[in-house]
């Protein structure tokens, strides 16, 4: 493999790592403030215990998210200096606003973590809400920068230089809204199901059922709403991709031949050499409908694009299938939960809790898969139709060492955080009351 | 508008060097504390730094973001040629960040604390050294900008600019600066008898700092470095360093009398003067490579970008600075009189 491949792998790995912590950092504060509010209203001690336990979680995840994010803001330049040199000024606006949002978040977090018994109760609680809102705001802003890479706007290329830059137009590019909406919902769905699953497992083990049921309920309500809305927003995203990046859409669907009434494939094995898909289920016309809202519309196939501009089709296709498959599953699970609010008997069935315990990590799998669709689907471009990834990479040789370094450090970190979370739960279960 | 951006660039640099530096320094002081004092130092650091811990480090992010938006050509040079030391800085920031939070938020207190502590202290020492080495490399005149990699070796381009005596000395200088800041800050945070410990530490690190500062200048002078020569000929810079050195006298008196507010003001002013002296010498040519001096104000982003950035920074500043101030005030990090402090201690 070349330097470029290692730089790509490193980018993918570090972003894939950061996104998990970022999602949790965006969403956990909301769980925490709901539990906190319930404590303020009811003064039932288990809510206080839960709030404090989640607060420790927020602190640990926040810092891991923050240090990996700090690394990312250097890495964009370290790995892709040519990209940053030209694109930096154009997409600077979301990043500078994001910096402001981080700051607000960090200040609010300082108040929240250290404010117990020192600040007036309501003010203290509100600082918790501010953590959540500014976290979501930074998520939206950074995704808008990514959307710009998919749908460049707000500048003109004159003799290889980016001229007539309009940072506001770059921020409000065509893709920002659909991507930001989809990402925010994804964060809620993934974190909600992950947290709910952990507590469902504790309920199965019959540890502190009152506390864990309260926790489950808060997490699954957020996660369930996210999961119900996610397919709708995903459909908007797909229509959007069909318009702005038809080649990505074709790769997502492994759609090789241009045709009207294009069928949608479910499953299937892609042979990129022979340009065909075997072992698939076909739904006639569904792809045309999905992409353009019309069963008869023509969908351009991969064969009709310049062959040196194709992304790695199998990766994009499989990742897309994984995301959509998980999306449908989570939506079903969300429905089951909301029905169980009426049918209380379900809650006594251990299968109910097993379901949520088992699907716990799937939301995050879908998040990673979705990002692979977006990022690998954009290849070979770093800025769609403007700049190729290979022209942006650092001239420094030896990127493999950097990659191995990041992988080992982050793996150790991830294991440590998992181990710490396990300890938090153990202590929570052991506590009196 | 460019001036607004420049102001925020140096403002973030100053605050990062000051607040981030005090933060790194806290770990260094802990490292150099006797066994009995370590726990005490650790708890004090947590009390003082905890609430603004996260905010301290965002100044670095703001600085980086401003650089890449407004001064992309400059950022490009920094980020390509200092790839390795900056990676080491990031590694250090990561290690000490997580170690700090792990040791305070781990649900179980057991032997793993030993590891968190070690990780925290050692990375607290190494990170500012690498950061200082990066600063040193920028003005060392050793960076070779080239597109022709067949003429030069990997080491010449990517290693020797930062791994040389001058850069190592600047690295050590910055680490000493951090330790000096932290011990000065800690003086005000403890009860009267313990204060002595930090007063002594503060005095010790002041001496180390002055010695290392002298070493940087001597070494640069005898090896004919452009930056140091210009520095020594620049009246304003010399004046700033002179005042900063003179401030040591009232600083020491304040330390002796254990006046925490005054010591902090003096220490902050000294950092400001040192940065001013360094920047003033060569502004706007803040990067000195082997062949040329790079002007920061050449090849900047177009005006439309600068304008939007300036507005964002101003608007952000209006929200953030009062918030930060209120945060520090709420947790007693900024004190207006000793009295308030005494009450809290007793
Ligand atoms: C919990 C996670 C999750 C779930 C259940 C889904 N997605 Fe998704 N999807 C993401 C998480 C995600 C993501 C990781 O957040 C992405 C990557 C970039 C983005 O904005 O969101 C994404 C991207 C993404 C894109 C590419 C957008 C682009 O490149 O601009 C499309 C077309 C879809 N999704 C469509 C769907 C559909 C039709 C789903 C049906 C159920 C679906 N997603 C469920
Ligand atoms: C889809 C991608 C991303 C999302 C949704 C996202 C979101 C977030 C969120 C919510 C945080 C706050 C940390 C927390 O609460 O745990 C965070 C931290 C951070 N992110 Fe990301 N981020 C993404 C990608 C990036 C990228 C590409 C960069 C770099 C250019 C970046 C830079 C940062 C930085 C610097 C921080 C630390 C801020 C601090 O100290 O609080 N992020 N991110
Ligand atoms: C957090 C979620 C994200 C994940 C998991 C992710 C994943 C990836 C992957 C897999 C690649 C490599 C693609 C390839 O070379 O085949 C990549 C590249 C890249 N991503 Fe992302 N990405 C994320 C978000 C972002 C965001 C928010 C930004 C910028 C604002 C960004 C900027 C880049 C850049 C600059 C590259 C390198 C150039 C390229 O390969 O196109 N990514 N990312």
Helix content of chain B: over 70%
Cα-to-Cα separation, first versus last residue of chain B: 49 Å
Overall tally of domains of chain A = 1
- SSE order of chain B in H/E notation? HHHHHHHHHHHHHEEHH
GO biological process, one term (chain A): aerobic electron transport chain
GO cellular component, one term (chain A): cytochrome complex
Subcellular location (chain A): Cell membrane
Protein name (chain A): Cytochrome ubiquinol oxidase subunit I
Describe the protein in words.
The complex is a heterodimer of chains A (433) and B (346). Chain A is mostly helical and 433 residues long. In chain A, 70% of the residues lie in helices and 7% in strands. Chain A is built from 14 helices and 8 strands. In chain A, the strands form 4 sheets. Chain A has a two-stranded antiparallel sheet with strand order 1-2. A two-stranded antiparallel ribbon of chain A has the order 3-6. In chain A, helix 2 (45-79) packs across helix 3. Chain A is globular and about 65 Å long. The model of chain A has no long low-confidence stretch (mean pLDDT 86). With 346 residues, chain B is mainly alpha-helical. Chain B has one domain. Chain B is built from 15 helices and 2 strands. In chain B, strand 1 and strand 2 (293-294) form a beta hairpin. In chain B, helix 3 (53-70) packs across helix 4. Chains A and B meet through helix 2, helix 3, helix 4 and helix 14 of A and helix 3, helix 4, helix 5, helix 7 and helix 14 of B. The structure holds CIS-heme D hydroxychlorin gamma-spirolactone and protoporphyrin IX containing FE (2 copies). The site of one protoporphyrin IX containing FE (HEM) has 23 residues of chain A, from helix 1, helix 5 and helix 13.
